[in-house]
Amino acid sequence: MARVKSSDQCATAELVSAYLDGQLQPGELDIVVEHLVECGECIAEFHRLKEIRAALRTLPFLEVPERLLPDTHPGEQLSAYLDGQLDTVEHEFVVSHISFCTDCRLELHELDAARTAIRSLPGLDPPEFLAVHRERIEKERWTRRRVVGAGVGIAAAAAVVVAAIGPATDPGGNLDINPLFDQHQARVSFEPGVNFAPVFHSTADNP
Amino acid sequence: MSRQLFRLVAVASLAGVFLATFVGGATAAELEDFLDEADQAIFSGRQATWCSYSGHTEFSVVDVEHAGALVMVENAGSSQMVGGGRYSVVGGSGAGIAITDWSSTDASSRYSTSSVEADTRLGRDVVVVSVDEEDKIRARIWFDKDTGAALGSEIYDSAGDLFRLSWMLDFDTSTRKLYAALRESGSTYDVVVSADGDGLPDVAAGYTRSDTYAGPDESLHAFYTDGLFSFSIFVIEGRISESPFVDADSMSGGQYRWILTPSELWVQWSGDGLTYVLVGDLPPDHLDKVLPELPQPAQANILSRLWHGLFG
To answer: Complex ipTM, two decimals?
Structure first.
Protein backbone atom coordinates (compact mmCIF):
# COMPACT_ATOMS: atom_id res chain seq x y z
CA MET A 1 0.00 0.00 0.00
CA ALA A 2 1.42 3.34 -1.08
CA ARG A 3 2.01 5.94 1.56
CA VAL A 4 -0.11 8.99 1.02
CA LYS A 5 1.69 12.25 1.69
CA SER A 6 -0.01 15.17 3.30
CA SER A 7 -0.13 18.28 1.07
CA ASP A 8 1.54 20.19 3.94
CA GLN A 9 4.46 17.89 3.60
CA CYS A 10 4.64 18.17 -0.19
CA ALA A 11 7.32 20.67 -1.17
CA THR A 12 5.87 21.22 -4.68
CA ALA A 13 2.31 22.05 -3.58
CA GLU A 14 2.99 25.76 -3.96
CA LEU A 15 4.38 25.16 -7.43
CA VAL A 16 1.10 23.46 -8.42
CA SER A 17 -0.82 26.53 -7.38
CA ALA A 18 1.63 28.74 -9.24
CA TYR A 19 1.22 26.50 -12.29
CA LEU A 20 -2.53 27.13 -12.25
CA ASP A 21 -1.86 30.83 -11.91
CA GLY A 22 0.53 30.73 -14.84
CA GLN A 23 3.30 32.06 -12.65
CA LEU A 24 5.93 29.31 -12.92
CA GLN A 25 9.53 30.31 -13.49
CA PRO A 26 11.54 28.61 -16.30
CA GLY A 27 12.45 25.03 -15.30
CA GLU A 28 9.74 24.78 -12.64
CA LEU A 29 7.21 23.36 -15.10
CA ASP A 30 9.22 20.14 -15.48
CA ILE A 31 9.35 19.75 -11.68
CA VAL A 32 5.58 20.10 -11.40
CA VAL A 33 4.84 17.67 -14.25
CA GLU A 34 7.18 15.03 -12.86
CA HIS A 35 5.75 15.48 -9.37
CA LEU A 36 2.14 15.24 -10.50
CA VAL A 37 2.89 11.88 -12.14
CA GLU A 38 3.96 10.28 -8.87
CA CYS A 39 2.06 12.26 -6.15
CA GLY A 40 -1.62 11.26 -5.81
CA GLU A 41 -2.14 13.88 -3.11
CA CYS A 42 -1.00 16.68 -5.39
CA ILE A 43 -3.06 15.36 -8.29
CA ALA A 44 -6.16 15.59 -6.07
CA GLU A 45 -5.09 19.05 -4.88
CA PHE A 46 -4.49 20.08 -8.48
CA HIS A 47 -8.06 19.13 -9.46
CA ARG A 48 -9.52 20.74 -6.35
CA LEU A 49 -7.74 24.02 -7.06
CA LYS A 50 -8.92 23.92 -10.67
CA GLU A 51 -12.52 23.43 -9.54
CA ILE A 52 -12.28 26.30 -7.04
CA ARG A 53 -10.87 28.62 -9.69
CA ALA A 54 -13.63 27.63 -12.14
CA ALA A 55 -16.29 28.20 -9.47
CA LEU A 56 -14.84 31.61 -8.60
CA ARG A 57 -14.94 32.65 -12.24
CA THR A 58 -18.66 31.85 -12.47
CA LEU A 59 -19.58 33.98 -9.44
CA PRO A 60 -21.59 37.09 -10.33
CA PHE A 61 -19.68 40.35 -10.33
CA LEU A 62 -20.65 42.40 -7.30
CA GLU A 63 -20.22 46.13 -7.03
CA VAL A 64 -19.42 47.50 -3.63
CA PRO A 65 -21.80 50.37 -2.86
CA GLU A 66 -19.97 53.66 -3.13
CA ARG A 67 -21.04 54.65 0.34
CA LEU A 68 -19.11 51.65 1.77
CA LEU A 69 -15.89 52.45 -0.01
CA PRO A 70 -13.35 54.59 1.82
CA ASP A 71 -11.95 57.72 0.15
CA THR A 72 -14.52 57.87 -2.67
CA HIS A 73 -15.77 61.35 -1.83
CA PRO A 74 -15.64 63.75 -4.75
CA GLY A 75 -13.30 66.13 -2.87
CA GLU A 76 -11.94 68.68 -5.32
CA GLN A 77 -14.58 67.67 -7.86
CA LEU A 78 -17.15 69.53 -5.73
CA SER A 79 -15.52 72.84 -6.57
CA ALA A 80 -15.22 71.90 -10.23
CA TYR A 81 -18.89 70.89 -10.08
CA LEU A 82 -19.91 74.35 -8.86
CA ASP A 83 -17.80 75.85 -11.65
CA GLY A 84 -19.56 73.65 -14.22
CA GLN A 85 -16.23 72.14 -15.28
CA LEU A 86 -17.01 68.43 -14.88
CA ASP A 87 -17.51 66.09 -17.77
CA THR A 88 -20.70 64.00 -17.92
CA VAL A 89 -19.32 60.97 -16.07
CA GLU A 90 -17.81 63.04 -13.27
CA HIS A 91 -20.97 65.13 -13.04
CA GLU A 92 -23.12 62.02 -12.66
CA PHE A 93 -20.80 60.67 -9.99
CA VAL A 94 -20.93 63.88 -7.96
CA VAL A 95 -24.73 64.21 -8.29
CA SER A 96 -25.20 60.58 -7.31
CA HIS A 97 -22.75 60.87 -4.41
CA ILE A 98 -24.21 63.99 -2.81
CA SER A 99 -27.66 62.46 -2.95
CA PHE A 100 -26.67 60.18 -0.05
CA CYS A 101 -23.50 61.68 1.44
CA THR A 102 -24.42 64.30 4.02
CA ASP A 103 -20.78 65.33 4.53
CA CYS A 104 -20.22 66.12 0.86
CA ARG A 105 -23.58 67.89 0.61
CA LEU A 106 -22.57 70.05 3.54
CA GLU A 107 -19.17 70.68 1.96
CA LEU A 108 -20.90 71.67 -1.26
CA HIS A 109 -23.09 74.15 0.61
CA GLU A 110 -20.07 75.60 2.38
CA LEU A 111 -18.17 75.93 -0.89
CA ASP A 112 -21.14 77.65 -2.48
CA ALA A 113 -21.51 79.99 0.52
CA ALA A 114 -17.79 80.80 0.38
CA ARG A 115 -18.03 81.63 -3.33
CA THR A 116 -21.00 83.89 -2.66
CA ALA A 117 -19.13 85.61 0.18
CA ILE A 118 -16.10 86.18 -2.03
CA ARG A 119 -18.27 87.67 -4.76
CA SER A 120 -19.79 90.08 -2.24
CA LEU A 121 -16.43 91.38 -0.92
CA PRO A 122 -16.03 95.18 -1.26
CA GLY A 123 -13.67 96.54 -3.91
CA LEU A 124 -10.21 97.80 -2.87
CA ASP A 125 -9.21 101.46 -2.86
CA PRO A 126 -6.40 102.33 -5.30
CA PRO A 127 -2.93 102.99 -3.80
CA GLU A 128 -1.96 106.57 -2.87
CA PHE A 129 0.48 107.11 -5.75
CA LEU A 130 -2.47 106.84 -8.13
CA ALA A 131 -4.54 109.42 -6.21
CA VAL A 132 -2.74 112.44 -7.71
CA HIS A 133 -3.14 111.10 -11.19
CA ARG A 134 -6.82 110.39 -10.56
CA GLU A 135 -7.36 113.95 -9.27
CA ARG A 136 -6.02 115.39 -12.53
CA ILE A 137 -8.27 113.13 -14.59
CA GLU A 138 -11.26 114.15 -12.47
CA LYS A 139 -10.53 117.86 -13.14
CA GLU A 140 -10.41 117.28 -16.87
CA ARG A 141 -13.68 115.37 -16.71
CA TRP A 142 -15.31 118.14 -14.68
CA THR A 143 -14.33 120.72 -17.32
CA ARG A 144 -15.90 118.62 -20.06
CA ARG A 145 -19.00 118.07 -17.93
CA ARG A 146 -19.58 121.81 -17.56
CA VAL A 147 -19.50 122.23 -21.31
CA VAL A 148 -22.20 119.69 -21.93
CA GLY A 149 -23.96 120.22 -18.59
CA ALA A 150 -26.50 122.71 -19.80
CA GLY A 151 -27.70 120.52 -22.65
CA VAL A 152 -27.88 117.42 -20.49
CA GLY A 153 -29.76 119.35 -17.80
CA ILE A 154 -32.51 120.25 -20.23
CA ALA A 155 -32.73 116.65 -21.46
CA ALA A 156 -32.78 115.31 -17.88
CA ALA A 157 -35.57 117.68 -16.91
CA ALA A 158 -37.59 116.45 -19.85
CA ALA A 159 -36.87 112.83 -18.86
CA VAL A 160 -38.02 113.44 -15.28
CA VAL A 161 -41.32 114.84 -16.51
CA VAL A 162 -41.85 111.84 -18.81
CA ALA A 163 -40.92 109.38 -16.01
CA ALA A 164 -43.26 111.07 -13.56
CA ILE A 165 -46.30 110.82 -15.75
CA GLY A 166 -45.37 107.62 -17.58
CA PRO A 167 -45.95 104.03 -16.52
CA ALA A 168 -44.00 102.78 -13.50
CA THR A 169 -41.84 100.28 -15.33
CA ASP A 170 -38.34 100.85 -14.03
CA PRO A 171 -35.47 99.88 -16.25
CA GLY A 172 -34.30 96.39 -15.39
CA GLY A 173 -33.27 93.02 -16.70
CA ASN A 174 -35.13 90.29 -18.49
CA LEU A 175 -36.97 87.61 -16.58
CA ASP A 176 -37.25 84.12 -18.04
CA ILE A 177 -39.86 82.35 -15.93
CA ASN A 178 -39.14 78.90 -17.35
CA PRO A 179 -36.20 78.12 -15.01
CA LEU A 180 -38.39 79.24 -12.09
CA PHE A 181 -41.14 76.92 -13.27
CA ASP A 182 -38.69 74.01 -13.63
CA GLN A 183 -37.29 74.48 -10.13
CA HIS A 184 -40.75 74.86 -8.64
CA GLN A 185 -41.89 71.63 -10.31
CA ALA A 186 -38.76 69.80 -9.13
CA ARG A 187 -39.59 70.75 -5.53
CA VAL A 188 -43.32 70.08 -5.90
CA SER A 189 -42.52 66.53 -6.99
CA PHE A 190 -41.72 65.72 -3.36
CA GLU A 191 -45.22 66.74 -2.29
CA PRO A 192 -48.01 64.17 -2.20
CA GLY A 193 -50.75 66.80 -2.51
CA VAL A 194 -53.28 67.19 -5.32
CA ASN A 195 -50.69 67.33 -8.09
CA PHE A 196 -52.07 68.47 -11.41
CA ALA A 197 -50.08 67.53 -14.45
CA PRO A 198 -48.04 70.69 -14.80
CA VAL A 199 -48.60 72.53 -18.05
CA PHE A 200 -45.14 73.38 -19.19
CA HIS A 201 -43.48 76.06 -21.20
CA SER A 202 -45.95 76.42 -24.04
CA THR A 203 -48.47 78.08 -21.78
CA ALA A 204 -46.02 79.70 -19.42
CA ASP A 205 -44.21 81.28 -22.36
CA ASN A 206 -47.36 82.59 -23.94
CA PRO A 207 -49.72 83.53 -21.16
CA MET B 1 -78.82 34.33 24.40
CA SER B 2 -75.42 35.79 25.27
CA ARG B 3 -73.96 34.34 22.03
CA GLN B 4 -76.68 36.09 19.99
CA LEU B 5 -75.97 39.32 21.78
CA PHE B 6 -72.26 38.95 21.08
CA ARG B 7 -72.98 38.40 17.35
CA LEU B 8 -75.22 41.46 17.28
CA VAL B 9 -72.54 43.64 18.88
CA ALA B 10 -69.87 42.29 16.50
CA VAL B 11 -72.00 42.96 13.40
CA ALA B 12 -72.87 46.44 14.64
CA SER B 13 -69.19 47.20 15.25
CA LEU B 14 -68.17 46.04 11.77
CA ALA B 15 -70.96 48.08 10.20
CA GLY B 16 -69.77 51.11 12.13
CA VAL B 17 -66.21 50.67 10.90
CA PHE B 18 -67.48 50.26 7.33
CA LEU B 19 -69.62 53.36 7.50
CA ALA B 20 -66.84 55.40 9.05
CA THR B 21 -64.44 54.27 6.36
CA PHE B 22 -66.52 54.41 3.21
CA VAL B 23 -69.48 56.65 3.73
CA GLY B 24 -68.60 58.74 6.72
CA GLY B 25 -65.97 61.24 7.65
CA ALA B 26 -62.27 60.58 7.74
CA THR B 27 -59.35 62.20 9.49
CA ALA B 28 -56.65 64.40 8.03
CA ALA B 29 -54.28 61.45 8.46
CA GLU B 30 -56.51 59.34 6.24
CA LEU B 31 -56.51 62.12 3.64
CA GLU B 32 -52.72 61.97 3.74
CA ASP B 33 -52.90 58.21 3.22
CA PHE B 34 -55.09 58.70 0.15
CA LEU B 35 -52.69 61.31 -1.23
CA ASP B 36 -49.64 59.17 -0.51
CA GLU B 37 -51.21 56.20 -2.28
CA ALA B 38 -52.11 58.40 -5.26
CA ASP B 39 -48.52 59.58 -5.36
CA GLN B 40 -47.28 55.99 -5.73
CA ALA B 41 -49.88 54.89 -8.31
CA ILE B 42 -48.89 53.49 -11.71
CA PHE B 43 -51.03 54.61 -14.64
CA SER B 44 -51.11 56.48 -17.93
CA GLY B 45 -53.73 58.43 -19.82
CA ARG B 46 -54.86 61.86 -20.96
CA GLN B 47 -55.58 64.47 -18.35
CA ALA B 48 -57.71 67.56 -18.87
CA THR B 49 -57.24 70.54 -16.54
CA TRP B 50 -59.41 73.65 -16.39
CA CYS B 51 -58.87 76.69 -14.24
CA SER B 52 -60.76 79.96 -13.83
CA TYR B 53 -59.65 83.08 -11.99
CA SER B 54 -60.84 86.68 -12.08
CA GLY B 55 -62.70 86.29 -15.36
CA HIS B 56 -59.89 84.37 -17.09
CA THR B 57 -60.15 80.70 -18.00
CA GLU B 58 -57.36 78.32 -19.03
CA PHE B 59 -57.71 74.76 -20.29
CA SER B 60 -55.27 72.06 -21.33
CA VAL B 61 -55.17 68.39 -22.23
CA VAL B 62 -51.87 66.57 -21.71
CA ASP B 63 -50.66 62.98 -21.86
CA VAL B 64 -49.55 61.76 -18.46
CA GLU B 65 -47.55 58.70 -17.46
CA HIS B 66 -47.21 58.14 -13.74
CA ALA B 67 -45.10 55.50 -11.98
CA GLY B 68 -44.35 55.90 -8.31
CA ALA B 69 -43.53 59.56 -7.84
CA LEU B 70 -42.15 59.76 -11.39
CA VAL B 71 -44.34 61.64 -13.84
CA MET B 72 -43.89 62.21 -17.55
CA VAL B 73 -46.05 64.87 -19.19
CA GLU B 74 -46.31 65.33 -22.93
CA ASN B 75 -47.59 68.67 -24.04
CA ALA B 76 -47.32 70.55 -27.33
CA GLY B 77 -44.74 68.13 -28.75
CA SER B 78 -42.49 68.36 -25.73
CA SER B 79 -42.04 65.81 -22.93
CA GLN B 80 -40.90 66.57 -19.43
CA MET B 81 -39.92 64.20 -16.66
CA VAL B 82 -40.59 65.19 -13.06
CA GLY B 83 -40.08 63.19 -9.89
CA GLY B 84 -38.00 62.72 -6.78
CA GLY B 85 -36.86 66.32 -6.84
CA ARG B 86 -35.69 66.14 -10.43
CA TYR B 87 -36.93 67.89 -13.52
CA SER B 88 -35.65 67.35 -17.06
CA VAL B 89 -36.74 67.69 -20.65
CA VAL B 90 -36.87 64.37 -22.49
CA GLY B 91 -34.35 64.51 -25.31
CA GLY B 92 -33.31 67.99 -24.24
CA SER B 93 -29.71 69.08 -24.61
CA GLY B 94 -29.48 71.14 -21.43
CA ALA B 95 -29.01 69.95 -17.88
CA GLY B 96 -32.02 69.15 -15.72
CA ILE B 97 -32.61 70.43 -12.21
CA ALA B 98 -32.11 68.26 -9.13
CA ILE B 99 -33.13 69.10 -5.58
CA THR B 100 -31.62 66.75 -3.02
CA ASP B 101 -32.54 68.50 0.25
CA TRP B 102 -36.17 68.78 1.25
CA SER B 103 -38.34 68.80 4.35
CA SER B 104 -41.55 66.90 4.82
CA THR B 105 -44.58 68.87 5.98
CA ASP B 106 -47.72 67.22 7.29
CA ALA B 107 -51.12 68.24 5.98
CA SER B 108 -52.38 71.31 7.74
CA SER B 109 -54.87 70.84 10.51
CA ARG B 110 -57.17 73.29 8.71
CA TYR B 111 -58.38 70.51 6.41
CA SER B 112 -60.80 67.76 7.31
CA THR B 113 -62.59 65.17 5.22
CA SER B 114 -66.33 65.55 5.56
CA SER B 115 -67.32 62.49 3.55
CA VAL B 116 -65.85 59.47 1.83
CA GLU B 117 -68.23 57.91 -0.67
CA ALA B 118 -68.15 55.14 -3.24
CA ASP B 119 -68.76 56.00 -6.90
CA THR B 120 -67.84 54.88 -10.42
CA ARG B 121 -65.75 56.83 -12.98
CA LEU B 122 -64.36 55.68 -16.33
CA GLY B 123 -65.94 52.30 -15.55
CA ARG B 124 -63.82 51.97 -12.43
CA ASP B 125 -64.72 51.89 -8.75
CA VAL B 126 -63.64 55.06 -7.04
CA VAL B 127 -63.71 56.63 -3.59
CA VAL B 128 -64.81 60.27 -3.53
CA VAL B 129 -63.18 62.24 -0.72
CA SER B 130 -64.60 65.65 0.17
CA VAL B 131 -62.07 67.96 1.83
CA ASP B 132 -63.39 70.81 3.95
CA GLU B 133 -61.76 73.94 5.30
CA GLU B 134 -63.61 75.70 8.12
CA ASP B 135 -66.78 73.75 7.29
CA LYS B 136 -66.69 74.84 3.65
CA ILE B 137 -65.92 72.56 0.76
CA ARG B 138 -62.35 73.08 -0.46
CA ALA B 139 -61.81 70.03 -2.68
CA ARG B 140 -63.34 66.82 -3.93
CA ILE B 141 -60.98 64.10 -5.14
CA TRP B 142 -61.85 60.86 -6.91
CA PHE B 143 -59.39 58.09 -5.99
CA ASP B 144 -59.31 54.89 -8.02
CA LYS B 145 -59.93 51.98 -5.60
CA ASP B 146 -57.66 49.59 -7.49
CA THR B 147 -54.57 51.72 -8.14
CA GLY B 148 -55.08 54.59 -5.70
CA ALA B 149 -54.62 57.09 -8.53
CA ALA B 150 -56.48 60.41 -8.42
CA LEU B 151 -58.81 60.15 -11.42
CA GLY B 152 -60.24 63.58 -10.90
CA SER B 153 -60.30 66.55 -8.58
CA GLU B 154 -62.21 69.76 -8.04
CA ILE B 155 -60.81 72.71 -6.11
CA TYR B 156 -63.18 75.39 -4.81
CA ASP B 157 -62.62 78.98 -3.69
CA SER B 158 -63.95 80.38 -0.43
CA ALA B 159 -67.27 81.29 -2.08
CA GLY B 160 -67.80 77.67 -3.06
CA ASP B 161 -67.17 78.38 -6.75
CA LEU B 162 -65.10 75.96 -8.79
CA PHE B 163 -61.54 77.24 -9.18
CA ARG B 164 -59.77 74.29 -10.80
CA LEU B 165 -60.98 71.02 -12.27
CA SER B 166 -58.90 68.09 -13.43
CA TRP B 167 -60.05 64.80 -14.96
CA MET B 168 -58.47 61.80 -16.58
CA LEU B 169 -60.15 61.42 -19.99
CA ASP B 170 -58.87 57.87 -20.37
CA PHE B 171 -57.00 55.65 -17.99
CA ASP B 172 -54.65 52.68 -18.30
CA THR B 173 -53.11 50.81 -15.38
CA SER B 174 -49.76 50.57 -17.11
CA THR B 175 -47.23 52.97 -18.54
CA ARG B 176 -46.29 52.89 -22.21
CA LYS B 177 -43.31 55.13 -22.77
CA LEU B 178 -42.13 56.37 -19.42
CA TYR B 179 -39.16 54.08 -18.85
CA ALA B 180 -37.93 54.39 -22.42
CA ALA B 181 -38.22 58.15 -22.10
CA LEU B 182 -36.34 58.01 -18.82
CA ARG B 183 -33.25 56.82 -20.69
CA GLU B 184 -33.57 59.73 -23.10
CA SER B 185 -34.07 62.32 -20.40
CA GLY B 186 -31.12 64.41 -19.37
CA SER B 187 -28.22 62.61 -17.74
CA THR B 188 -26.82 65.74 -16.14
CA TYR B 189 -28.49 67.89 -13.51
CA ASP B 190 -27.77 71.22 -11.92
CA VAL B 191 -28.05 70.52 -8.21
CA VAL B 192 -29.98 73.12 -6.24
CA VAL B 193 -28.40 73.86 -2.86
CA SER B 194 -30.10 75.10 0.30
CA ALA B 195 -29.87 78.73 1.36
CA ASP B 196 -30.98 81.08 4.14
CA GLY B 197 -34.38 82.66 3.68
CA ASP B 198 -33.80 85.93 5.51
CA GLY B 199 -36.60 88.42 4.96
CA LEU B 200 -39.22 85.79 4.19
CA PRO B 201 -41.74 84.66 6.82
CA ASP B 202 -41.59 81.13 8.21
CA VAL B 203 -45.38 80.89 7.94
CA ALA B 204 -47.68 82.82 5.61
CA ALA B 205 -51.44 82.44 6.04
CA GLY B 206 -51.21 78.80 7.09
CA TYR B 207 -48.47 77.90 4.59
CA THR B 208 -45.17 76.78 6.13
CA ARG B 209 -41.85 77.61 4.51
CA SER B 210 -40.45 74.10 4.39
CA ASP B 211 -37.33 74.76 2.33
CA THR B 212 -35.26 77.61 0.93
CA TYR B 213 -32.82 77.19 -1.94
CA ALA B 214 -30.52 79.12 -4.20
CA GLY B 215 -32.67 79.83 -7.22
CA PRO B 216 -31.76 80.23 -10.90
CA ASP B 217 -29.48 83.18 -11.77
CA GLU B 218 -28.55 83.89 -8.14
CA SER B 219 -32.16 84.31 -7.08
CA LEU B 220 -33.59 82.91 -3.84
CA HIS B 221 -36.25 80.21 -3.88
CA ALA B 222 -38.54 79.60 -0.89
CA PHE B 223 -41.05 76.76 -0.96
CA TYR B 224 -44.27 76.95 1.10
CA THR B 225 -46.89 74.26 1.59
CA ASP B 226 -49.94 73.59 3.73
CA GLY B 227 -49.86 69.87 2.93
CA LEU B 228 -52.51 70.13 0.24
CA PHE B 229 -51.50 73.16 -1.83
CA SER B 230 -48.09 74.73 -2.30
CA PHE B 231 -46.28 77.67 -3.84
CA SER B 232 -42.76 78.91 -4.48
CA ILE B 233 -41.46 82.44 -4.05
CA PHE B 234 -38.46 83.52 -6.11
CA VAL B 235 -36.64 86.64 -4.96
CA ILE B 236 -34.60 88.23 -7.75
CA GLU B 237 -32.14 91.11 -7.39
CA GLY B 238 -33.16 94.25 -9.23
CA ARG B 239 -36.21 95.15 -11.21
CA ILE B 240 -37.47 93.47 -14.33
CA SER B 241 -38.37 95.27 -17.53
CA GLU B 242 -38.88 92.33 -19.90
CA SER B 243 -40.97 89.39 -18.75
CA PRO B 244 -44.30 87.70 -19.48
CA PHE B 245 -45.72 89.84 -16.64
CA VAL B 246 -45.20 93.16 -18.41
CA ASP B 247 -48.45 92.87 -20.34
CA ALA B 248 -50.22 90.73 -17.74
CA ASP B 249 -53.30 91.73 -15.75
CA SER B 250 -52.74 93.61 -12.55
CA MET B 251 -54.40 93.78 -9.16
CA SER B 252 -54.15 95.97 -6.05
CA GLY B 253 -53.73 99.14 -8.09
CA GLY B 254 -51.11 97.72 -10.41
CA GLN B 255 -48.79 96.57 -7.62
CA TYR B 256 -49.16 92.89 -8.49
CA ARG B 257 -49.30 91.35 -11.96
CA TRP B 258 -50.60 87.85 -12.46
CA ILE B 259 -50.74 85.08 -15.07
CA LEU B 260 -53.04 82.08 -15.00
CA THR B 261 -52.13 78.66 -16.43
CA PRO B 262 -54.30 75.55 -16.08
CA SER B 263 -52.11 74.18 -13.31
CA GLU B 264 -50.63 77.30 -11.68
CA LEU B 265 -51.21 80.87 -10.72
CA TRP B 266 -48.25 83.25 -11.15
CA VAL B 267 -47.92 86.61 -9.39
CA GLN B 268 -45.09 89.14 -9.76
CA TRP B 269 -44.32 92.32 -7.82
CA SER B 270 -41.36 94.54 -6.92
CA GLY B 271 -40.20 96.18 -3.72
CA ASP B 272 -36.96 97.40 -2.09
CA GLY B 273 -34.99 96.84 -5.28
CA LEU B 274 -36.11 93.22 -5.49
CA THR B 275 -38.47 91.39 -7.80
CA TYR B 276 -40.72 88.69 -6.37
CA VAL B 277 -42.35 85.92 -8.37
CA LEU B 278 -44.88 83.56 -6.79
CA VAL B 279 -45.98 80.37 -8.55
CA GLY B 280 -48.25 77.74 -7.11
CA ASP B 281 -51.53 75.85 -7.16
CA LEU B 282 -53.05 77.60 -4.15
CA PRO B 283 -56.67 78.75 -4.47
CA PRO B 284 -57.33 82.49 -4.98
CA ASP B 285 -58.68 83.20 -1.48
CA HIS B 286 -55.52 81.66 -0.04
CA LEU B 287 -53.48 83.88 -2.36
CA ASP B 288 -55.34 86.94 -1.10
CA LYS B 289 -54.33 86.04 2.47
CA VAL B 290 -50.76 85.02 1.62
CA LEU B 291 -49.70 88.15 -0.31
CA PRO B 292 -50.08 90.62 2.61
CA GLU B 293 -47.82 88.38 4.73
CA LEU B 294 -45.00 88.39 2.19
CA PRO B 295 -42.60 91.30 1.47
CA GLN B 296 -44.71 94.17 0.19
CA PRO B 297 -44.57 95.90 -3.17
CA ALA B 298 -43.18 99.42 -3.37
CA GLN B 299 -45.87 102.08 -3.21
CA ALA B 300 -46.36 103.67 -6.60
CA ASN B 301 -46.43 107.45 -6.64
CA ILE B 302 -49.66 109.29 -7.29
CA LEU B 303 -48.89 109.90 -10.96
CA SER B 304 -48.17 106.20 -11.54
CA ARG B 305 -51.41 105.24 -9.81
CA LEU B 306 -53.21 107.80 -11.98
CA TRP B 307 -51.58 106.32 -15.08
CA HIS B 308 -52.67 102.78 -14.04
CA GLY B 309 -56.12 104.07 -13.25
CA LEU B 310 -56.46 105.63 -16.69
CA PHE B 311 -54.70 103.06 -18.86
CA GLY B 312 -54.63 99.88 -16.76
So the answer is: 0.86
